[in-house]
DNA sequence: ATTGAAATATTGCACAA
DNA sequence: TTGTGCAATATTTCAAT
């Protein structure tokens, strides 16, 4: 992984559909070379995927919440994580340090759906209780931090 | 926005670099038709962008934390949000209901960097204090919830 | 990493359902 | 209006170097 790889990554983080030809022009390489580099970044697990980002309310998922998950004393957190993964509405899941075992981000259509999700969460073996924080608005999300892609050498 | 649009969106959420030709094969439309539909979804703000997802530690951002922001009594939350947006290491920013005004997700290279970021946060006008939850591991993140894309009619 | 070449994809446009 | 088919570019993807 050199500076060129990092520039390609930064470009793809901002513009996931950039063509290899475009990327090549940006970094001063042929499309083929970029193609091969990106392929290697993908198979080595540096780039894990490409996703379209959608305005949640326009796909009927207007209610976002951040939910802290408290485990029971005897819980196996691995099992809890798997149970959380089985719920479609759980978009992200973080294992955290502190009183809570996990913090998850949940996106649903309505507060009624949120209530249903909370019910499902509480019924998961190993979950003692939950603490819900409702998101009023998302100022920004998943913004690429490219601060480390600063190369001195060019 | 019809069922075909929803299927295209679902496909692009999973596979952001899918070609129009590929998408067309999936939904039974010509590449031209898909091209036009996607263009409209983009200009109407349904699809807001495409991004490569990168393994954070492989780009030197191995430390993730979720930080609750408490505002002062006199704070203008709009100003606070703008100040938060100016910090590169703040990847996501949610305005929330509850004791905290915002919850932000911060990604940095080391705990030293985290300490520096916390210092920057506390120096922002309008922020009274912060509450940091360290992420031990990310089980999954930004997973597309396609549960609402269930069409009965096909 | 490059070049060259064949296969594939993009994208504008005329026209048809 | 939305989709199709076509044609001109452009891109992808290989093999050879």
TrEMBL record, chains A, B:
Q: Which Pfam families match?
A: AsnC_trans_reg, HTH_AsnC-type
Q: Which parts pass through the membrane?
A: none
> What domain of life does the UniProt record list for this protein's source?
Bacteria
Locate the coiled-coil region(s) and give their ranges.
Answer: none
The UniProt keyword set, sorted, is: DNA-binding, Transcription, Transcription regulation
Key word Transcription present in the record? Answer: yes
Question: Which SMART domains does the record match to this protein?
Answer: HTH_ASNC
Record domain HTH asnC-type: where: 1-62
Q: What protein is this chain from?
A: Lrp/AsnC family transcriptional regulator
Organism annotation: Actinophytocola glycyrrhizae
